[in-house]
Amino acid sequence: MQLIIFDLDGTLVDSLPDLVNAVNAMMAEHQRPPVARDVVAPWIGRGSRWLLQQAFAHHGIDSGAPDFDFEAAFARFMVHYANHLIGETVLYPGVAAALAALASQGTRMAVCTNKPERFVAPLLRAMGIEPYFGAVLGGDSLPLRKPDPAPLLHLARHFGVSVGQCLMVGDSRHDVDAARAAGMSVVGVRYGYGGDADFAQSPPDAVFDSLELIPPWLARQGLHLATARLH
Ligand SMILES: O=C(O)COP(=O)(O)O
Ligand SMILES: [Mg+2]
Q1: Nearest ligand by distance to the CA of 52
Q2: Which residue of 115, 124, 140, 186 sits with most ligand 1 atoms within 8 Å of its CB, as the best mutation to test the pocket?
Q3: Cα of 132 to ligand 1 centre, how many Å?
Q4: Which stretches within the chain are classed as H helix?
Q5: In the prediction, which pLDDT does 228 show?
Q6: Is 171 annotated among the ligand-binding residues?
Q7: Which end of the chain offers a freer environment for a tag, N or C, measured as fewer CB atoms within 10 Å?
Q8: Residue 163: its pLDDT value, please?
Q9: Predicted local distance difference test score (pLDDT) of residue 215
Q10: ipTM score of complex
Q11: What are phi and psi of 137, to 5 degrees?
Q12: Which candidate, 133, 72, 71, 126, places its Cα nearest to that of 107?
């Protein structure tokens, strides 16, 4: 693989506690009780607007109603998330080691997340992994976001590689759907927010419990391809 494109939330970082803190700061502003982490988890992966809409809907608030100022609420949510960006967020086990192993093999890497772009570089920097990535796209970097293939195709073009030379790594069906639509290979991580339920709907080529299993899997794939070429 020439380029590995990583999803962020649920794949590289466990940002659920901070996203929940931001959601619940919003709920408090709207006189609603906090939402539990396991309720919020499946709402992550389709972008911040969708996450906020789900939280309002959970408490019976129609954020699409004509008299509801969703843009004002979204702006408040962005302020809360900026305040909670790196409070409790951590790298998943094995991420640092896997990125180091891939970088040492000369693999180029990028991040494609639906999280708003302004948060992505500060978060990667705080986690100590920013230097690994040659490009980063957020959910508002382009007119279309995952599951649309546009950001993945944009990254392939940016690096000057074909889609057949790209691997997407993600935790949700939106990652799988985007990769399939782009014509890229895709593997899933089971520990994130989509999990087996998402992968049953949109099956990746392989599913792993740790990113550390990806470099040896890639090596085996390379071996298989080489063997196939010999025959
Ligand atoms: O939905 C989000 O805001 C982020 O999601 P992603 O990093 O999993 O794309
Ligand atoms: Mg994700």
Answers
A1: 1
A2: 115
A3: 19
A4: 16-29, 37-40, 48-58, 70-84, 95-104, 117-126, 150-159, 173-182, 195-201, 214-230
A5: 66
A6: yes
A7: C
A8: 97
A9: 93
A10: 0.97
A11: -120, 135
A12: 133
In terms of residues, how long is the chain? 231
Residues annotated catalytic, as ranges: 7
Residue 80 tokens, joined: 């809360």
Q: pLDDT means per 10 residues in the chain (231 residues)?
A: 95 98 97 97 96 98 96 98 96 98 95 98 98 98 98 98 97 98 98 95 97 94 69 63
User: What are the pocket residues of ligand 1 if the criterion is a CB atom closer than 6 Å to any ligand atom?
Assistant: 7-10, 44-48, 51, 113-115, 139, 172
Q: How far is the CA of 28 from the centre of ligand 2 (A)?
A: 26
Domains and CATH numbers, the chain: 3-14+89-230 (3.40.50.1000), 16-84 (1.10.150.240)
Q: pTM value? A: 0.95
**Per DSSP, what are the bridge partners of residue 38?**
none
Omega of the bond prior to 33 within 30 degrees of 0, cis? no
Ligand 1 atom nearest to CA at 43: 1
Identify which ligand lies nearest to the alpha carbon of 193. Answer: 2
Identify each DSSP E strand in 70-144 by its residue range.
90-91, 108-112, 135-137
Could you tell me the distance, in angstroms and rounded to a whole number, from the CA of residue 227 to the centre of ligand 1?
37
